[in-house]
Amino acid sequence: MPEAPALSSSLSSSVVALRGGPLAHAQRNPGMPFDASWLDSLRVNQSAVERRTATLVTRRSVKKEAQAAWLLKAVTCIDLTTLNGDDTEGRVRRLCAKARRPVRADLLDALGIAPQGITTGAVCVYHRFVAAAVDALQGSGIPVAAVSTGFPAGLIPHPLKLKEIEASVADGAREIDIVVTREYVLTGNWQALYDEVRDFREACGPAHLKTILATGDIRTLSNVVRASMVCMMAGADFIKTSTGKEGVNATLDVSLVMVRMIREYQQRTGVPIGFKPAGGVSSAKSVLSYQILMKEELGRAWLEPDLFRIGASSLLADIERQLEHYVSGRYSAFNRHPVA
């Protein structure tokens, strides 16, 4: 295989230094009392949002060694996910093996990156497979994230939602991805949404809480703005766009609105909140757009896995293809880069 140009020292160093043991999460979000007046002050200009996202990528160009470094960084922020009805323990264990070694060793060697320096940010599974994933990832420092609260619809009884969270934490999940009750958002019942997420936060105990807004279901950017803020008030450590099961999942428009709410919340409380787009982020080109969004709107800290995650499965294969192209000058077939 032809030798690839060395990565620039600053970007290479930032990639190599990502992990040295268990994931170090950002500070927990303690939440705050519900404040309806804060919600009343929030506004969103849809035309301005669309103009901003339309020019986001056209004003930036990430090429060659810089692109390779950004894509390696993206790998470390992936919540490698399998959420299918035909999941098996064997599939989950293969996924965990890929999370430990997400990029082929020969490609990392050509890039001058130590294989142990690159793992995915987490593995995301249903509760049924949490214990198997924890066992398969033992010693890696990679956390297991469990989808919970009746994912993806979130319409099971509230006490069962809390028991599901507690069961996943007991099995070793360090992150819980919950779905909110869309009805509360669609009817403007913000107090009920706050109370629900506050209960979820308590049930999580030491595990980090990621709240899924299901932005394709709650319809308007105004709803996205308010739901984002309510979830952060209630103690969410991350806000997440989608389950991946809606008709419309992550978009740059929705993501821009959500990350600006994160900025607003941090300015008022001093607490940094993480962001996770999920569903539809399946190509290297698309993930670069989200990385640029995070860097420009929130800053360098939001390119790291403690504050930025991407819910994805097929994305990893496309990133590996792009890295192989950088190393060899040739594109390989997609099926040569299986996820698990």
From TrEMBL:
CDD domains in the record: DeoC
Q: For this protein, what reaction is catalysed?
A: 2-deoxy-D-ribose 5-phosphate = D-glyceraldehyde 3-phosphate + acetaldehyde
One Pfam match, given by its short name, reads DeoC
Q: In which pathway does it act?
A: Carbohydrate degradation; 2-deoxy-D-ribose 1-phosphate degradation; D-glyceraldehyde 3-phosphate and acetaldehyde from 2-deoxy-alpha-D-ribose 1-phosphate: step 2/2
Which Gene3D superfamilies would you find in this protein's record? Aldolase class I (3.20.20.70)
Alphabetically, the GO molecular function entries are: deoxyribose-phosphate aldolase activity
* Top EC category: lyase
Q: Does the keyword Lyase apply?
A: yes
Q: What is its EC number?
A: 4.1.2.4
Q: Which keywords accompany this UniProt record?
A: Lyase, Schiff base
Instruction: Describe the family membership recorded for this protein in Swiss-Prot or TrEMBL.
Output: Belongs to the DeoC/FbaB aldolase family. DeoC type 2 subfamily.
NCBIfam families this protein is in? deoC (TIGR00126)
Protein name, UniProt field: Deoxyribose-phosphate aldolase
